[in-house]
Design goal:
The protein is mainly α. 45% of the residues lie in helices and 3% in strands. A two-stranded antiparallel sheet has the order 1-2. The longest helix is centred in the middle third of the chain and has 26 residues. It is flat. The protein starts with 34 loop residues before the first strand and ends in a 22-residue tail after the last helix.
Length: 148
C-alpha cells in the first residue's frame, strides 16, 4: 500500500523551505560588492555596477537633504496652494527618504557609508549656515511659511 507524498515541512514562517542559494539575506553589516541594492539582481557581481549603486545612493541622499531644506512657498501666497505644494514636496521627499532606507536594508557597508556621506554633504550644502547669508540665521527648520 503506497502512502501519498506529504508536502515539504514548513519552517517557522509557515512557508515551505527554500533552497539556500535561492535567497541570501544579510542580517549584519557586511563589506563586499556582491549583493542586491534596491532592485533584484542589481548591482550583481560587477564592480562597475556596484560603484554606480554607491553613487546612486549618495545622490539620492543629497536629494533628500535638498528637499528637506527646500522652501518653495513665498510669503503672502495663497494658503491652499501653499499647503498643496508643501504636501507634494513632502510626499516626494518621503519617497526619496524611503529609497535610501530600502538601500540601507541591503546591510552593505559601502551603501551605509555612501548614504551617510550623501546626507552629510547635502546637509552642508543645503541646510547648514555655511552657504547662507547672515539674514537667514534667524530661520529655523520648523518655522511656518507665514513666519518666513
Amino acid at each position: 500500500m503506497d502512502m501519498p507524498m506529504l508536502p515539504p515541512a514548513a519552517n517557522f514562517t509557515g512557508m515551505p523551505p527554500m533552497d539556500h542559494m535561492e535567497m541570501m539575506t544579510h542580517l549584519i553589516l557586511y563589506w563586499g560588492k556582491n549583493g542586491e541594492i534596491l532592485f533584484s539582481g542589481w548591482p550583481g557581481t560587477r564592480s562597475g555596477m556596484y560603484a554606480l549603486a554607491l553613487i546612486a545612493v549618495f545622490l539620492i541622499a543629497i536629494i533628500d537633504e535638498w528637499l528637506s531644506g527646500c522652501r518653495p512657498i513665498k510669503p503672502g501666497s495663497n494658503q491652499v496652494a501653499a499647503g498643496l505644494v508643501q504636501a507634494v514636496v513632502q510626499g516626494i521627499r518621503m519617497g526619496v527618504a524611503y529609497m535610501v532606507m530600502l538601500a540601507l536594508m541591503s546591510f552593505n557597508g559601502g551603501v551605509f557609508l555612501a548614504a551617510i556621506a550623501g546626507h552629510a554633504l547635502g546637509f552642508l550644502a543645503f541646510r547648514s549656515m555655511v552657504f547662507k547669508g547672515r539674514e537667514t540665521t534667524s530661520l529655523t527648520r520648523w518655522s511656518r511659511p507665514s513666519e518666513v
